[in-house]
Amino acid sequence: MRKFKTESKKLLDLMINSIYTNREIFLRELISNASDAVDKLYFRSLVDDSVKINRADLAITVAYDEEARTVTVSDNGIGMDKDELDKNLGTIAHSDSFEFKAQRSGADETGLADETAEDIASADVDIIGQFGVGFYSAFMVGGTVRVVSRAYGSDEAWAWESDGIDGYTITQSERSEHGTDVIVTLKADTEDESFGTYATQQGLTSLIKKYSNYVRYPIQMEVTKSRMKEPPADAGDDYKPEFENYTEVETINSMIPIWKRKKSEVTDEEYNEFYKTDFHDFEDPLRTISLHAEGTLTYDALMFVPSHAPFDMWSKDYKRGLALYSSGVLIMDKCEELVPDHFNFMRGVVDSADLTLNISRETLQHNSQLRAIARRLEKKIKSELANLCADDREAYVGFFKEFGRTLKYGLYSSYGMAKDTLADLLLFYSAKQKKMVTLDEYIADAPADAEAIYFAAGDSIDRLANMPIVTTVLAKGYDVLLCDENVDEFCMMAMQDYTPKDAAEPDGSTKAWPIKNVGSEDLGLTTEEEKKKAEEATEENADLFGAMQEALGGKVQKVVISTRVTDAPVVLTTEGAVSLQMANLLKEQPGADEGVPEAQIVMEVNAEHPVFQVLKAAHAAGDAQKVKDYAGILFDQALLVEGLPIENPLEFSQRISALMI
Ligand code: ADP
Which H helix or E strand runs over 208? Predict the structure, then answer.
């Protein structure tokens, strides 16, 4: 018996004993090896005239024996001679798992440091599954593994066999033609794991379709089917049909991936079917995007914009990502490095022959090829969405209803870094046009003297549309974007301004339009004269306003005469970065009991409103109680108008009742 090299033994221990549950990938690994072996022979035939093979004969066969509990993966590829069996299957030259370990722990190149297999197993359980663990994965399900191989051009066959514990044997064997059989004898079933299901037609078929559907060679399996027997010639009316089983060799995989085919040769129906089966959706996708890149980096991508958000989209367990294939073999089904968070709704596949199968999660993050692919895909998704927005607004509004929040959240959570990609994809409700518009459309429709984009945030479009701070701006001819989603205001803050897409100034420069909250900023809509007048009036009433502020017990920063209100008696605005809506949202965050920034509230009084005269009279008459009560009512009322909660509803209603009697 030959002993395994230390590092091989450690990996074997790790694989066999780990609690890692995704054992089914062993089949994928064995089939990939078989496909590589067939590839190698095929390529050799291209450059070596003495190698005579017919490509059509190249195939992979999967067989099983339920009783003997074996699964066999065979190929008629290049095969291995005795030395190769020893060298290739006796050692693990460079397992990615161990390299990863080395990088992480700063250990030497073998990465083994002083850790035991259990240490590694407990810490890195999920790593195993992310790697192409190769041939050794057979030991996750197999008690023994036997490899019978005959190298192309040799007339000898050799058998390698091991229980995956200490070592292996190599003995002379027989095989009728070149190629390799890997025979896995499955472990006994345990309470948690029924290994026996791998040796069934159903189990194997579904694994082949799941992981190896697009391997370029046929994966054949003898399948048992049932058919109706021919009725006998003398069958009468009461004849009951009988069934019989028969077997047939079937190609289980579909071989040519749909994403490798030219877009013009695939029908919409085929794309839709593929999308629905592969991504488990019941509805057709909204948009299908296919991309074939050639050059330094060759890959095919097929992506879909779903027509509705998956039910778990907003749960924290939701995982973004596209399926990643290398030459038709699935490496991982959700590679998140391929799509940015703000396009996390995209589904699809990327297939690149330039990536190796043994790519690890750790290497993925640093893989410049993958980053290049991701950048290109992001641009492509962006331009497709922009086209949809321009060409089919109804569909885009539907899309935005489902995923707009993701785009806005992306803008906010990237601190505005994704603005170039996302800002022109956003839609907001225009109070003036009464429909969803882009920021470009807002600007295109703005009066000639407009210089800013105005928005108001609250909990309902209807309520916002009637808020005094909004109607005032509308009355001056400017539009206001009404934002009723929590993320809106944060998104607007992250953007700060917006530069229209193709609006060059006469001198060729482009002008950025500041984005302003109508409730919290100097909108620049009042003339100097109006401002001065309001300041003087505020000064004249300083005594009353001081009393009102005091009555409100520090809830407002100051009370002033307003320059903006038209019909409400007072309006609450804010100074600084935190608006009323935002302060309210922040308060609702978990763990926000302490230390959330408060809004700096200003109570603006409408000097034209009769209520102001009543206040003035009460103050002049020295009726401090009335001033206090009225100030309280006005404050609460203004909050209610904005859809915000009031601190003491009981007190509010008592004050209103008192007014009635
Ligand atoms: P990897 O495939 O990542 O190199 P594996 O552990 O899966 O690692 O396999 C080790 C080596 O064994 C392969 O590189 C290949 O040379 C050889 N090998 C495995 N399976 C076969 C096969 N079916 N036919 C020929 N060679 C094989």
Answer: helix 201-211
Q: What gap in Å lies between CA 347 and CA 570, rounded to an integer? A: 50
For residue 410, report the phi and psi dihedrals to the nearest 5 degrees. -65, -40
Find out whether the beta carbon of 77 lies less than 6 Å from any atom of ligand 1. Answer: yes
Mutate which of 36, 39, 178 for ligand 1 pocket (most atoms within 8 A of beta carbon): 36
pLDDT of 619: 94
**Distances, alpha carbon 335 to alpha carbons 266, 324, 342, 364, 369, in Å:** 25, 6, 15, 9, 14
Alpha-carbon distance 150 to 311, whole Å? Answer: 52
**Residue with more model confidence, 602 or 358:** 602
Pairing type for strands 142-150 and 480-483 reads: unpaired
Cβ contact 632:624 at 8 Å: no
- Is residue 473 within 8 Å of residue 391, measured between CB atoms? no
Could you give the angle at the alpha carbon of 90 between the alpha carbons of 87 and 91, nearest 5°? 85
Q: How far is C-alpha 183 from the geometric centre of its chain's CA atoms? A: 39
Instruction: Count, in order, helices (H) and strands (E) of the chain.
Output: 22, 23
Beta-carbon count within 10 A of 261 CB:
16
Task: Indicate the DSSP class of residue 303.
Answer: E
In angstroms, what CA-CA distances link 584 with 310, 411, 412, 467, 515? 29, 21, 18, 18, 21
Torsion sign, CA atoms 650, 656, 659, 661:
negative
- Amino acid 116 reads T
Give the Å distance between the CA of 93 and the centre of ligand 1.
11
Atom 23 (ligand 1) nearest CA? 34
Closest CA to 65 of 229, 181, 152, 171: 181
- Integer distance in angstroms from the first to the last C-alpha of the chain? 104
Please give the model's pTM, rounded to 2 decimal places: 0.65
How open is the CA angle 313-332-38, to the nearest 5 degrees? 150
Long-range contacts of 414-423 (CB under 8 A, 24+ apart): 414/342, 414/494, 415/494, 416/494, 416/495, 416/496, 418/340, 418/342, 419/494, 419/495, 421/342, 421/378, 421/382, 422/342, 423/495, 423/498
pLDDT digits (tens, 9 = 90+) for 367-405: 788 889 999 999 999 999 999 999 999 999 999 999 999
Residue 181 Cα to ligand 1 midpoint, Å, equals 12
**Over 90: is that where the pLDDT of 255 sits?**
no
Nearest to 598 by CA among 551, 552, 643, 555: 555
Residue nearest to atom 12 of ligand 1 (CA): 88
**Does an H or E element contain 429, and which?**
strand 428-430
Spatial distance between the Cα atoms of 72 and 500, rounded to a whole number of angstroms:
63
- Residue 247 one-letter amino acid: T
Q: For 223-248, what is the mean pLDDT?
A: 90
Q: What is the 3-state secondary structure (H, E, C) of 529-545?
A: HHHHHHHHHHHHCHHHH
Mean pLDDT of the chain: 86
Ligand 1 contact via 160 beta carbon (within 6 Å):
no
Ligand 1 centroid vs 467 CA: distance in angstroms? 71
Residues 235-244 have a mean pLDDT of 88
Instruction: Write out pLDDT tens, residues 139-179.
Output: 989 999 999 999 999 999 999 999 988 889 999 999 999 99
